Amino acid sequence: MAFARSRQALAIAGVLGLALGATACGTGNDKKSDKASSPECAAYEKYQGHDGKKVTIYSSIRDLEADRLDQSWKQFEDCTGIDIDHEGSGEFEAQLGVRVDGGNAPDLAFIPQPGLLKRFVDSGKIKTVGADTKALAEQNFTPDWLKYSTVDGKLYGVPLGSNVKSYVWYSPKTFKEKGWQVPTTWDDLIKLSDQIAASGTKPWCAGIESGDATGWPATDWIEDLMLRTQTPEVYDQWTTHGIPFNDPKVAEALDKAGTILKNEKYVNGGFGGVKSIATTSFQEAGTPITTGKCALHRQASFYANQWPQGTKVAEDGDVFAFYFPAVDPAKGKPVLGAGEFVSAFADRPEVQAVQTYLASGEYVNSRAKIGDWLSANNKLDINNVPNPVDKLSVQILQDPKTVFRFDGSDLMPAAVGAGTFWKGMVDWINGKDTATVLQGIESSWPK
Amino acid sequence: MTTATPTVPAGTQATEKTTRAARVRKRLNSRTATLVSIVIALVWTIPTFGLLISSVRPENEIKTTGWWTFFTNPQFTLDNYQQVLFSTSSSSGQLASYFINSLAITIPSVLFPLAFASLAAYALAWINFKGRDWLYIAIFALQIVPLQMALVPLLKFFSTGVTVAGVTVLPAWGLVDEQKFAQVWFAHTCFALPFAVFLLHNFISQLPRDLMEAARVDGATHPKIFRTIVLPLVTPALAAFGIFQFLWVWNDLLVALIFAGGGDETAPLTVRLAEMAGTRGNEWQRLTAGAFVSIVVPLTVFLSLQRYFVRGLLAGSVKG
Amino acid sequence: MEFDFAEEQPKFLMLMYGLIAFVAVVGGLLLLLDAVPAWFARRREAQLIAASASGTPLPRRRKEREGLFALFFLLPTLLLLTIGLVVPAIRTTLLSFMDRGSNDWVGLRNYGWMFSEGSIIRVLVNTLIWVLLVPLVATAFGLLYAVLVDKARFEAVAKSLIFLPMAISFVGATIIWKFVYAYRGDGQEQIGLLNQIVVGLGGEPKQWLLESPLNTFLLIVIMVWIQAGFAMVVLSAAIKAIPADIVEAARLDGVTPWQMFWRITMPSIRPALIVVVVTLSIATLKVFDIVRTATNGNYDTSVIATEMYNHAFRYGENGQGSALAVFLFVLVIPIVIYQIRNLRQQREG
Lengths: 447, 320, 349
Known about the structure:
The complex is a heterotrimer. By secondary structure, chain A is α/β, with parallel strands linked by helices. Chain A has helices at about 1-15, 30-35, 65-70, 75-80, 90-100, 115-120, 130-140, 145, 170-180, 185-200, 215-230, 230-240, 250-260, 275-280, 290, 350-360, 360-370, 390-400, 410, 415-430, 435-445, and strands at about 55-60, 85-90, 110, 150, 155, 160-165, 165-170, 295-300, 320-325, 335-345, 400-405. In chain A, helix 3 (about 65-70) crosses helix 17 (about 360-370) and helix 20 (about 415-430) packs antiparallel against helix 21. By secondary structure, chain B is an all-alpha fold. Chain B has helices at about 5-30, 30-55, 60-65, 70, 80-85, 95-125, 130-140, 145-160, 180-205, 210-215, 220-250, 255-260, 270-275, 285-315; strands at about 160-165, 165-170. The radius of gyration of chain B is 24 Å and the shape is flat. Chain C folds into two domains: about 5-95, no CATH class; about 115-350, MetI-like fold (Orthogonal Bundle), CATH 1.10.3720.10. Chain C is built from 15 helices and no strands. The radius of gyration of chain C is 28 Å and the shape is extended. At the B-C interface, helix 1, helix 2, helix 6, helix 7 and helix 8 of B face helix 1, helix 2, helix 4, helix 5 and helix 6 of C. Chain B: Pfam families: BPD_transp_1. Chain B: It comes from Micromonospora sicca. Chain B: It is a multi-pass membrane protein.
C-alpha cells in the first residue's frame, strides 16, 4: 500500500524533525459561499450573511468527541461560510477563567457547570442571549432546563447536550443465566444485592478516581439518593445552601448511599474492599461486570463509551443499564442528569448566529445522528439517536412523570461542588464518618 | 589587544589535567563501584522500563495484568504507537504537526534566556555598580513566583496591551495562528530568567579574578571581555542550563496551553498527548506510547550534549 | 486530515523569524556595547589631543560609565522580569487582600482563613516535609552516586539512566509511578510493581496512596527519582573538576577514601552543592504537577502550590489562592538570606 507507506514515512520524517517533501493528498477546499444557494442549505437561510467570519468555541470536549462536534456543524459552516474554530481542553474549567481574566476569552464556551456560568455572569463577562436565540431556546427547552442558565431573570446560556445519571449498569446476559430480575423498586434492588452477595460475588463495583476531579462519581451517588430520600424541593434547598450541608436530611442520604457503598459485603466487586473505591478509576470501575466479578454499577449514560472494545451495549447484549429505582415510587420518578450550556463572551452577530444554531432542532438532530449524544432539546427526534442507552435516556427525559434535577455539585459554588464535596466524598469512602465529613463541607461553603 | 590569548593556555592546561586525572581514576577503578552503580542505575530505570513494556502491550492486557507478565506471556502490539503517531482524531491532525510546534516553541525559548541571562549574570558578577548585590538577590528571589500566578497578567499584556491612565503605552499584540509562538517564547523567557541568572552567575562569578583584571588592565572593555573571555569559558555552563531549559520547555503543558492554544497550528506535543486520552479518559493506554514518543527528543539532546556538558562544567568551577 | 507538509511552512517561517529576532537583538546589543565605548574612546582621544595642544588641564575620566554598561547588559533581563514576574508578584500580593472576585478589600481575612482552616494547616505541614526531604535526599543520593560512578566503568551509561527521569515531564513521571503504586484487591493479579513485590513476599496488597502520612513520602519518592539526576550530573561535573594533583597528593599522603571524601571532595564541590540544594529547594516549594496528578491533594497529601491553583483557578477564590502564593514568597525568605550570606562570603573571599 503506497498510501500507507507514504504516511508512515512522513511521520518518521516528522519524528526526526527532518524536512521531507510533502506527498500527502491535500483535501479539496470547497469555496463555501457558492454552496449557500444549494437546496441542502435551505435550512440555514436565517443564519446567512456572515460569510468568512470566524467564531471560536472553547470546551472540555477532546479527541474523538471533538471530531464528532466538528462533523456535526460541518454543513452549517459550508452553507453559511462561518468558520467555527473549536478547541477542547482537559483543563477547561481552570483555563476558561484564565483566558477570560486575561482578556482572551473565546466567543462561545460550552460550560457544564451552572455554578461556573453564574460566576462569569457575576463578573459581567458573559453576554445575555440574543432575542432570536432566546425565543428559540424557550421553544425547544423546558423552563426547568433554562432556569440553570438564568440569572436575575436574564438568560445567559442555552442548553446543548445532556446526560442521564440515574442508571445502574448490568449484564443482561449474566442476569439471564442466573435468573436475576431487573429491579424496579429500591427494596428489590437491595434484595437482589443480598441474593448476589449470598452467591459469593460482591454485587456492586464502583470507582471514584478521576484525576484532578477525583470524587465526583460519589457525589453523583449522594445526589441521586438526596432525590430519592428527600423531596425535589429539599434537593433545591440543598444545592443553593437553603439548608446547611450538614443537615440531618443530607446525612440521611449519605447513610443510605453508605448502605451500599460502605458495605463490605456489597463492594467492591473485582477490585477489593470499600477503600478500593477511592483508588479505582471511574473509567474502569464497571469493567468487572463483563467478567462476572461484579453485577451492578451505578453510572451515567455516557459510561456506554467506557466498556472494553467489542462489548455489545444493548438490552439483549453484554451490558446495559436500568433506571436507578426510586425509594418511594409514589413521589414520581426522580432523575439526576447534567449537561452543558452554550454561553457567549462576545455579541458579534455571527457569534449569536452560531449560538442560535446550536439551540436549534437542526443542530441537535445533526449531532445525535453521529452517535453517543443526546439533548433535552424537545426537537430531538428519538429515531435519530442510534445508541440504545441514549434512546432510553431520551425516553426518560421526555417522560412526563420524570422529576428532573441537575447534578447538584455542578450547581454549587466551585469551592464546594468541585472542591470540598469531592474531597469529602473521598474521605468518606476512605473511612471518615458522615457527620465529620458533612461538617467539613459545610464549613467550607463560601460566605 | 591580548584578551583572546588566556583561553588557549587555559584550555590545554585543562586537557592535560583531565588526562592525568583519568590515569589516577583508572587506578582507583574498582569492580564493586561499577557493580553497585550499575545495579542502582538499573533499579532506577525499572519504572520507565515498565512503561516501555506497557506501551507495546494490548489495551486489555495493560489494564488487567502487570507488565512483567509480558515475559511469561508476550503479547506484542504496536497499536498504541500506531494510534499515537497516526492519530485517530481527524480534527486534531497528525502528531508530526505537533512535533514541529514543539521544536518551533523550544528552540527560541532556550536561546533567548541563555543570551539575556548570561549578559545579566556577567554584569552582576563583574561590573561594579551600586546595588548590584541587591539586584542579584532580587532576581534570585523571583524564582519563587509560581508561574500560575503570572499567567493572567501576562496574558492581559498580550491581549490588551498596556494602558496607563487611559493612554495606550503598548498596544495589544493581536497575534494569530503560528504567530502565537512569539507569545510562548516571551513567556518561557520571562519564567526562565531568574534560574538562568542564578545558575550562570554562579559560574561566571567564579572565573579567576586575575584573568579579568589582567584583561581590564590591557584595556579590554566589558563587552569585549564578555565575548572573548567569559563566553568561551562558561560554554559548558551554558550547555548545562540549555539542557535544563530545553527539558523544561519541551515538557511544559501549562504555558503552552495558555499562550499557544490547543490547535494543531501552535500547540506542542504535550498538549496533544494530554488530549489523547479522550474526553472521558478511557483511552489512556495511548499515554504509554505517547510518553515514549515525547521522550525521544529530549533524551537525544541530553545524550548528545552530555559529554560536552559534563566535561565542561569544570571550566566554570576552577577557582581563581 | 492528512499530514500536509506545505501547511507546516508558516511555522518554520515563524521559527526563522524568531531566530532572526534573536540574532538581531543579541547581536545588536553586543554591537551597541562595542560601538558606543569605541566612540567614547575616540572622543576622549580627540579631547586629549586637543587638550595637549591647547595646554588646558585634562578632563577627568568619568566613572559612571560602568553603571551605564551594567544597565545595557541588564536591560533585556530587567524588562522581561518586570513584565513577566514582578508585576504579577505585586498583583498577587494585592489580590491576597481582596475578596474572591477581587472587587473589595478584605484586609487580612484570607490570611486568617489560611491559618484557621484545618485542611490548609495540613497543607503547610506537608509542604514543609517536602522542602526538608527532597533537597536532602536527592542531593545526598546524587552525591553518593556521583562519587561512586566516578570510579566505575560504563559511567556514561549509568549516568544516562539516572538522568533519564529528568527527560520525562512531571506528569509523565507521575503516571509511571501510579503504575508502580497501583492496587488490585487481595487474591487478584496485581498490576502495580510494589504490590506485586509485597504479595511475592507473602504480604497483603496495600493501597499505597491512601495511607497518610506514608503517601506523602511515596510522592516525595517521585520527586527524588526525577531530581536526583540533576544533582548527580552537576555534582559529578564538580567532582571531576577537582584538580588531579590535589587528589594525587592526598593519595600519596595515604588518606583513606573516607578522609578523601570529607577533606578534599566536599570542600571542593561546595559551590556546586549549594547550587543543587538551593535549586531543589525552590523547585520543591513550587511542586505542583506530581501531587495533582497522583492524588489531586486527596488523602492529606496536598501542598501549597496545588491548593493555590485549586483556589485561584478552579474554585474562583482569587483572594485565598493569592494568599497561599504570598505564603510561598514568605517561605523562600530563609533561602534568600542564606544566599545573601553566601554572596557576602564570596565577595570577601
